[in-house]
Amino acid sequence: MEKQQSDFDDALVVEQFNAMTRSIPIVFVNLLFMTTVFCWFVYEQTSSRLALWATPPLMAAQAARAFYWRRLGRRGHDFSIEKQRRMLRTVWIMCLALCVGFSVIALLTLSLPDIFIQSTMSILTIACSIAIALQMFTVPRAALSVLWSVTICTVFVFLRSENSILIAASAALIVVAFAVARLLRDNFDTFRKLVHSRVDVERMRTAAIDLAMTDALTGLPNRRMFEMKLRACAAQGTEFSVAVIDLDGFKPINDLYGHAVGDRFLEEAARRMREARDAGLIARIGGDEFALLIENADGSRASSIARSVMARISAPYELLGVSAKLGASCGVAVWKEPGDENRLVERADMALYEAKARDRGAVVIFAAALEDDAQRRAMIAAGLREAVAADAFELRFQPIVDIATGEPKSFEALARWRHAELGQIPPNVFIPIAEQAGLIEAVTDGLLRKAARTAMRWPEQIALSFNLSAIQLARLGAAQNILSTLAECGLPPRRFEAEVTETAIMSDVVSTTATISALKLSGVQVALDDFGTGYSSFSELCELPLDKVKIDKSFVDKICGDARAASIVGAIVKMCGELDLSCVAEGVERAEQLECLERLGCARAQGYLIARPMTEDETLAFLAERSGAVRKSA
């Protein structure tokens, strides 16, 4: 409340001062007239040449002041509130001086023998004072001082004249003075209310702008404010950088514990970022995405500051009874020349994309090569839309065999796609792009249908292994859609193995676990793909509804020459046995690897040593050759 009153008082002073810049020139015009009349009056009564000599300097001084205030009104000023308040106080003092001057004029007429001259000078004085008072109504103390001092003196002169007409006129003069005083008060009240309304409107406008420019949850500036500040920095022409930070691991927390807990984590992350030194302007520009605007910083300094901010974000959290740890990845882009600001956030996003692709917690500075990659991804995304419409995706199938007998147990379906201009695009490239472009469901649904129809040509004991994306797993009714597709193609659920990655599960724990559980209840087998490269620990496997674990190729590559890798694989195999899970080794390319896996107790294997991915017809030939065969080494 005190702040609001202070704002109103300051606004009133500003408006009073602005009004005076328009009114005071007219006041000085009135004074010029009265000065001329007064000097002429003195000269006529006394024949003194002093009055004639005094007139030009007085008129010049008044004209100079009138010109000064008029220039203020036209050209504006940059005076502080306090200076404006002091100048208004000076105006009031000047008015008091006018009161004294006018009163002297009125009293001097008492010595004149001619009643006409007395009354004429008094009437001119009161008329001039009323005109000045009306012009200065925005400063009521000054206006009323002029009005009442001159009125009282004039009435005194009229009463001392012993002229019945002037005595009667004095009463009328008092009535006029009261009417003018009432008019001054009413006008000032209206003026003050108008100022008050303007202050309220401005306060509401400022509040609306703040609301439009501020993120409601964290209190940080939002994307609109960030982009406005970014353009302002670009206009200054000095180097600055933009860092875009994305939280790693936030979505699982939000999904598992709910939005209330997720919001609290975002608030805490924002609070920590505010505490970072030299972080510049920090804004929330997306769900769990934040941006830093760092002035006078090149890429190296911006990266250092970003790492400091990320270190704060990554400290453990203990909120609402939930213990967790968030990570962060960051992309940095540097402004160097006019026009860069239009794509600076986009470039930082490109760098962020690369950072997340490399490793968690990475900071990547934008380079032209990243823009080339982004353009290539855009071409792939456009090609994917055409491929979905034309059903242009193909499948290859790679067998998974029993290591002891060499007998095929299942085939993993692998997607293949050739871009019209870019040629063959591997799945690890086009699948993530399809996810980002919102095409993954159309892609995987079509591929699943093709794969299931192919599997119907295999023997009953051969299963189909198919990779499910994170988006597909999290989709509402995903399990029912998959089972419906299998039923449409005639493939029993017991012959279907759903391969899921740890990353896919952790991206939306609640939804993906529900989908996996529903599939298992229908007889579908569930395999955890690329084990050892994602989030899971051994203990977490106990909580997941799994049937099989696939050991990642990175461990199999080192199994023969690296005792540590062999120990890890052995531990995974032993753990799977204790949890009653099947174990498959991926990426087997050499005979010695297969021998090592067999010694460690791994039951099944997949890789180029056994067979490369095959077409549908090639799978039938492979099955005819291998079915019933016994093979313990390549």
Question: Your description of this structure?
Answer:
This protein has 634 residues and is an alpha/beta fold. The chain contains 23 helices and 16 strands. It has helices at 2-46, 49-75, 81-108, 115-135, 140-160, 164-213, 223-236, 250-257, 259-274, 299-314, 344-358, 368-390, 427-436, 440-455, 470-474, 478-489, 502-507, 509-521, 538-541, 553-556, 563-578, 591-600, 616-626, and strands at 240-248, 281-284, 289-295, 317-319, 322-324, 327-335, 363-365, 394-402, 408-419, 423-425, 463-467, 496-501, 525-531, 548-551, 582-585, 604-605. β4 and β5 (322-324) form a beta hairpin. The longest helix is centred in the N-terminal third of the chain and has 50 residues, at 164-213.
- Contiguous runs where pLDDT drops below 50 for at least 5 residues: 628-634
Give the percentage of residues in beta strands. Answer: 5-15%
Please tell me what the overall shape is. Answer: rod-shaped
Give Rg in angstroms.
Answer: 44 Å
- How far apart are the termini? 86 Å
Helicity range of the residues?
Answer: 55-70%
How many helices? The count is 23
What composes the largest sheet?
A: 8 strands, mixed, barrel
Structural class: alpha/beta
Annotation, overall tally of beta strands:
16
- Biggest sheet strand order reads 8-9-11-12-13-14-15-16
Mean pLDDT across all residues, rounded? 83
Oligomer: single chain
At a glance:
The protein has 634 residues and is an alpha/beta fold. It contains 23 helices and 16 strands.
Which keywords apply here?
62% helix; alpha/beta; five-stranded mixed beta sheet; eight-stranded mixed barrel; 23 helices; 634 residues; 16 strands
